[in-house]
Amino acid sequence: MSRIGSEGEDIIGRWSEEKLDLLAKYLKAYSVIMNEQKKSWLRAYYYIDAFAGSVRPRAKEDEQRYIDGSPLRALQTEPQFDGYWFVDVSPKRVERVQGLRAEFPNCVIDVRQGNCNEILCNEIVPQLPYASKQRAFVFLDPYGLQVDWETVRELASTRTCDIFVNFSVMGVTRLLPREQNPEPEVIEQLTKVMGSTNWITEIYRETPGIQLGLFGNPTEPTSSRDTIQAEWLASLYTKQLKLLFPHVSRPVLMRNSTNSVLYALCLASHNQTAIKITNEIFNQYEKLRDLRR
């Protein structure tokens, strides 16, 4: 979640900075391992950013301070990736990302504008078949609920792509009303994002109607839901990911300044070592965060 500054740049909160720091730490570890594999079987490995966003967002608590966005974090990673795909729906953001070619002339940068689901499935995934001996790291950091489950399925089916996904816990809970069952279109939207919505029936309970209404007519029973625990929703999403990927990290909850959970960050991979590294990075982050409180 971010707002826009006077020059059109994103202004991001502390939790977004922390998310970018976690990304950078994992990218470093991933690139070192992949670069080593190039000595034997690996032909090339790539970084794919489906929501490239701001190149240099500003800090919410100090708008004079610029932060390196995810494209910069990837381009600054050593060893370098063999190529970079940056995708965003916003023409202004795409223009800024394109400017990175001049800053990093030795990097192979491909920038696409449009819906990430279509671009990933139709343009990028076909270039990464398993037989190609290529690998890719895909960062899925949507502004809300823009990543389709079918896109995640496509990425998983390649067996060449690992995904670092920032799942919008807040986006899901906002769609689910407290005092009634969700409308069919809400269930359809959540199915599109999560693959399954069987769990929705678990969180709503029927409240019996009062025997007689104002004019002596019996009232209809109503439905209401309990508070949805962010941890539960995050684990639900990672369980879904495990249906597609052999290895999934535990989720780390990204919280705002009031300690409300906004997103859950996790890695889905075809490699168990990748999960071990991710869980260690997440554990260190949570220990430091607990110390700061």
Write the topology of this structure.
Elements: E1 2-4, E2 10-12, H1 14-37, E3 44-49, E4 58-59, H2 70-75, E5 83-88, H3 91-98, H4 100-103, E6 109-113, H5 116-124, E7 134-140, H6 149-158, E8 161-168, H7 169-175, H8 184-194, H9 200-203, E9 204-207, E10 222-225, H10 230-241, E11 247-248, E12 252-255, E13 261-269, H11 272-292
Describe the fold and architecture:
With 293 residues, this protein is α/β, with parallel strands linked by helices. About 2% of the residues have low confidence.
Short structural description:
The chain is an alpha/beta fold. The protein is 40% helix and 22% strand. It has two domains: 239 residues, 3-Layer(aba) Sandwich (Rossmann fold); 49 residues, no CATH class.
